[in-house]
């Protein structure tokens, strides 16, 4: 057993962790598609999908079978290489961001000191998935959806970064483990309430969820940038959106709600509970809010949220300097 | 570290060749994005992940999106059938000579003395960068900020929709 060194064991353990987290995220993202429809049914006083299996629990398997066996059609007028690239980009860029999230004290993929910046960089790359997918489809509705999506995401990413800087200033680090450790006494949602609100809004906008789903508005754009996609390529866009939802929820929990910390229960339970709470919030928002007009969304971002985050950052900096911490 | 450096450097060079040799404008812009990401990876390999992350956030994530945006709005067709004017010597001889001079200078500078340098990937953290920027280079940072503010004011002035209130009765909205 000379080859079995502690280093090899650590490497294998890290690889195992990464694999489990990857699978868990994808499975949770896929399961959310059905959970969301059931919850929407509950909140809107109707049944939702309840035919497959007991209480509709097997709906997910039916949906997956359908999406796997659908014809994967590439339109002849599409730009082939870019058409193939876009869904992979949409899926991978959000999935990769999970690398930085510390699930529990012992679990997590990477312990990077630029953690938050890594997330912002991948969120920046995620814009191209929509933009390239919409253009490569060779369809005017897709292109219009892609242009809307990129303008919206770009505007909201500006203050998404700014809204997180208050947290970074208080924790003194970009590393998410340090940020969780800094919330030992007080969750950042209390001193950084403005940061939390603006990050929540920006997170919803960046994942194109209701009420910020102008890029895929069914009424006027016939589903926007992924109108030409079918089969597994559409599935990747679709699951990618839910993965984004899980990611933003997990980030909110880690940055503002103390991550895995909590009394009595083990850390993993706390993390899962908090993350599910924000996932439910995402779905409840979709169930209750209509879609605002596009120009309102843009001016809200630039005229309300951006100044708010700047004020928050200035105030945080001033308080930190005065208290000398 | 060293392997990562050379691999991403190779990708950057190949993507840039693809950028200038392709005929479709959108493909060219995508190549440029790949090239920028490869350069960011070079930063990572050199032990400057902060610079690398900022490169992706600012260049690939923000500026290039606007490029892609404009290229898509213009809806340019691939220019395959146009006469390749740029293949004539008159077009590339002068710039190539100047670039050659620069290359010679660069090679001479690199080969001068510091041959023993290796890529060790010594980590430069965000804290180091912040302390350097707002310590010895404070005035430069503030000057750059003022320059950017001036550019912002100019852009918002040029891009305003309504004419000033005084001559609205003559001009109206554009």
Automatic annotation (TrEMBL), chain A:
Alphabetized UniProt keyword annotations: Cell membrane, Membrane, NAD, Oxidoreductase, Quinone, Translocase, Transmembrane, Transmembrane helix, Ubiquinone
GO biological process, one term: aerobic respiration
Gene Ontology cellular component annotations, sorted alphabetically: plasma membrane
Major location (coarse): membrane
Domain of life the protein comes from: Bacteria
Enzyme Commission designation: 7.1.1.-
UniProt-recorded Gene Ontology molecular function terms: NADH dehydrogenase activity; oxidoreductase activity, acting on NAD(P)H, quinone or similar compound as acceptor; quinone binding
Membrane disposition: Multi-pass membrane protein
Compartments (UniProt record): Cell membrane; Membrane
Transmembrane segment boundaries: 12-32, 81-101, 113-133, 154-174, 186-206, 242-262, 268-288, 300-322
Catalytic activity: a quinone + NADH + 5 H(+)(in) = a quinol + NAD(+) + 4 H(+)(out)
InterPro entries: NADH_UbQ_OxRdtase_su1/FPO, NADH_UbQ_OxRdtase_su1_CS
Family designation: Belongs to the complex I subunit 1 family.
Complexes and interactors: NDH-1 is composed of 14 different subunits. Subunits NuoA, H, J, K, L, M, N constitute the membrane sector of the complex.
Job description of the protein: NDH-1 shuttles electrons from NADH, via FMN and iron-sulfur (Fe-S) centers, to quinones in the respiratory chain. The immediate electron acceptor for the enzyme in this species is believed to be ubiquinone. Couples the redox reaction to proton translocation (for every two electrons transferred, four hydrogen ions are translocated across the cytoplasmic membrane), and thus conserves the redox energy in a proton gradient. This subunit may bind ubiquinone.
Listed name of the protein: NADH-quinone oxidoreductase subunit H
Species of the source: Marinobacter flavimaris
Gene name for this UniProt entry: nuoH
TrEMBL record, chain B:
PANTHER family attached to this UniProt entry: NADH-UBIQUINONE OXIDOREDUCTASE CHAIN 6 (PTHR33269:SF17)
Protein name according to UniProt: NADH-quinone oxidoreductase subunit J
Cell compartment(s), UniProt: Cell membrane
Catalytic activity reported: a quinone + NADH + 5 H(+)(in) = a quinol + NAD(+) + 4 H(+)(out)
EC number: 7.1.1.-
The protein's enzyme class: translocase
Role summary: NDH-1 shuttles electrons from NADH, via FMN and iron-sulfur (Fe-S) centers, to quinones in the respiratory chain. Couples the redox reaction to proton translocation (for every two electrons transferred, four hydrogen ions are translocated across the cytoplasmic membrane), and thus conserves the redox energy in a proton gradient.
Keywords: Cell membrane, Membrane, NAD, Oxidoreductase, Quinone, Translocase, Transmembrane, Transmembrane helix
Pfam family, one: Oxidored_q3
Main localization of the protein described in the UniProt heading: membrane
Homology family: Belongs to the complex I subunit 6 family.
Keyword Metal-binding: no
GO CC annotations, alphabetized: plasma membrane
InterPro entries: NADH_UbQ/plastoQ_OxRdtase_su6 (IPR001457), Nuo/plastoQ_OxRdtase_6_NuoJ (IPR042106)
Keyword Chaperone among record annotations: no
Assembly with partners or alone: Composed of 13 different subunits. Subunits NuoA, H, J, K, L, M, N constitute the membrane sector of the complex.
Membrane topology of this protein: Multi-pass membrane protein
Ranges that cross the membrane: 6-22, 29-50, 56-78, 90-111, 131-155
Source superkingdom: Bacteria
A GO molecular function held by the record: quinone binding
NCBIfam families registered for this protein in UniProt: PRK06638.1-1
């Amino acid at each position: 057993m000379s080859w079995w060194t502690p280093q090899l064991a650590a490497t294998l353990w890290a690889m195992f962790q990464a694999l489990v987290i990857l699978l868990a995220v994808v499975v949770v993202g896929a399961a959310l598609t059905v959970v969301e429809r059931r919850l929407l049914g509950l909140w809107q006083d109707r049944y939702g999908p309840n035919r497959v299996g007991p209480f509709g629990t097997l709906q997910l398997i039916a949906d997956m079978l359908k999406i796997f066996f659908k014809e994967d059609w590439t339109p002849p007028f599409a730009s082939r290489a870019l058409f193939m690239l876009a869904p992979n980009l949409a899926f991978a860029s959000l999935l990769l961001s999970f690398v930085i999230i510390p699930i529990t004290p012992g679990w997590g993929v990477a312990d990077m000191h630029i953690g938050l910046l890594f997330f912002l960089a991948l969120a920046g790359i995620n814009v191209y998935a929509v933009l390239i997918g919409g253009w490569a489809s060779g369809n005017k509705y897709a292109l219009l959806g892609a242009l809307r999506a990129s303008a919206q995401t770009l505007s909201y990413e500006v203050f998404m970064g700014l809204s997180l800087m208050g947290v970074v200033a208080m924790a003194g680090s970009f590393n998410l483990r340090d940020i969780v450790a800094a919330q030992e006494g007080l969750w950042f949602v209390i001193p950084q309430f403005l940061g939390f609100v603006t990050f929540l809004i920006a997170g919803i906008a960046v994942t194109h969820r209701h009420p910020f789903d102008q890029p895929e508005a069914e009424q006027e754009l016939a589903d926007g940038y992924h109108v030409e996609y079918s089969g597994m390529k559409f599935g990747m866009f679709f699951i990618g959106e839910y993965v984004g939802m899980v990611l933003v929820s997990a980030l909110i929990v880690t940055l503002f709600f103390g991550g895995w910390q909590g009394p009595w229960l083990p850390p993993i339970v706390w993390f899962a509970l908090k993350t599910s709470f924000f996932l439910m919030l995402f779905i409840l928002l979709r169930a209750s809010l209509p879609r605002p007009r596009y120009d309102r969304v843009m001016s809200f971002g630039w005229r309300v949220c951006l100044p708010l985050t700047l004020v928050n950052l200035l105030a945080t900096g001033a308080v930190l300097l005065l208290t000398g911490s | 570290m060293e392997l990562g450096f050379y691999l991403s450097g190779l990708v950057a060079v190949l993507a840039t060749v693809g950028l200038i040799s392709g005929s479709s404008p959108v493909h060219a812009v995508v190549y440029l994005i790949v090239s920028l990401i490869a350069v960011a990876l070079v930063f990572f390999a050199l032990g400057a992940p902060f610079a690398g992350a900022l490169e992706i956030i600012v260049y690939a994530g923000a500026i290039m999106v606007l490029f892609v945006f404009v290229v898509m709005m213009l809806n340019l067709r691939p220019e395959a059938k146009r006469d390749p004017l740029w293949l004539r010597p008159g077009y590339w001889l002068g710039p190539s000579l100047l670039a050659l001079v620069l290359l010679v200078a660069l090679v001479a500078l690199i080969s001068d003395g510091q041959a023993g340098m290796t890529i060790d990937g010594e980590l430069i953290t965000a804290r180091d960068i912040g302390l350097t920027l707002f310590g010895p280079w404070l005035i430069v940072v503030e000057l750059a900020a003022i320059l950017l503010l001036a550019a912002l004011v100019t852009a918002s002035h040029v891009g305003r929709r309504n004419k000033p209130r005084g001559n609205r009765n003559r001009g109206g909205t554009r």
